[in-house]
Amino acid sequence: MGRKFFVGGNFKMNGTVSGIKDIVHNISTAKTDPNTEVVVAPPALYLLLTREHLDPKFEVAAQNIFDKPSGAFTGEISASQLKDSGINWTLLGHSERRTVLREDDDFIASKTKSAIEQGVGVILCCGESLEEREKGTTVDVVTRQLDAVNKMVDKEAWKNIVIAYEPIWAIGTGKVATTEQAQEVHAAIRDWLSKSVSSEAAENTRIIYGGSVSDKNCRELAKEKDIDGFLVGGASLKPAFVDIINANQ
Ligand code: PEP
After folding, report:
1. ipTM higher than the 0.85 cut
2. Is 232 in the pocket of ligand 1 (CB under 6 A)?
């Protein structure tokens, strides 16, 4: 059985009640590839609205969680609260949280552990800065980010993790990685899965690409053997998101 193509939409801190209803309506009513798994991540405030209006065949993700189940953590939400609300996924380790909110590898790993324990799937983001790419340390950086998670979760956890390779220099910049650049890192991640987790995890884990994916570049990227889908930011707010969902058709 091949890996099911996976497309995530990260709305970031965008949207209004009516705007999100429109986007969700467009996705729900469009003709979409039944072989693609679709998960959209609105801001926390709109999670339930999205769940209510999105076709049940699609899933909803939070953009972040805290690593404790409940308690005195003002402003945070937990994996168990997501689950209680019918939200089955979360993004974790997005570069905007790593850089702007200063989240480190261990905190992201701890949040991943908490999500998995509560039965919430994780879209785990990793990726290098431009400086790290130019220094030739891309694979070291990505491996360090993934090792931190691997130390905290058991091997079974990887069944509920989708790895999103997102080079920071390509996010929101319009500068997409070339198909060769993306494939090279995806293959290195698969190799890491095989050596550090298991051959099953290497075979079955979806590794998706994120960074300025659009309706123009998605089909070429989707042809690469280790690219199992996309995490889409800006374009997930537009009608073109449907073309990206259908990139593998
Ligand atoms: C993202 O936010 O994960 C992302 C990839 O953004 P964009 O598609 O806008 O580059």
Report:
1. yes
2. yes
